[in-house]
Amino acid sequence: MQTTPNTIEPEINIHDLSELDTIDELTARYPDKFSKSQLQWALRFRDENGLDAAVVKLGRRLYLHRPTFMTWLVSRRGIA
Questions:
Q1: What is the pTM assigned to this prediction?
Q2: How far apart are CA 1 and CA 19, in angstroms?
Q3: Which of 33, 12, 36, 16 is nearest to 25 (CA)?
């Protein structure tokens, strides 16, 4: 797999199910950092922005693997 500076490897190592959050859970956990609409926008374009590596899809519900999401977030420093 070819990676660009804005992507992370697509392998998720889940050690505990508590590492998975829905959008609502993540915004409740960090209300001063993320809004629901910010996360929905990022998830809508996850294939282009590299966030797909942090997503676990079960049926129609999306879960974000928190450690992988945080790695993705930090990798976006300075991107306008």
A1: 0.76
A2: 25
A3: 36
Burial of 19 (0-12, 13-18, 19+ CB in 10 A): middle
Contact 62, 47 (CB under 8 A): no
Q: Which two tokens stand for residue 63?
A: 């879960």
The alpha carbon torsion through 46, 38, 29, 69 (nearest 10 deg) reads 20
Query: What are the φ and ψ backbone dihedral angles of 62, each rounded to 5 degrees?
Result: -105, 135
pLDDT, one tens digit per residue, over 26-52 is 999 999 999 999 999 999 999 999 999
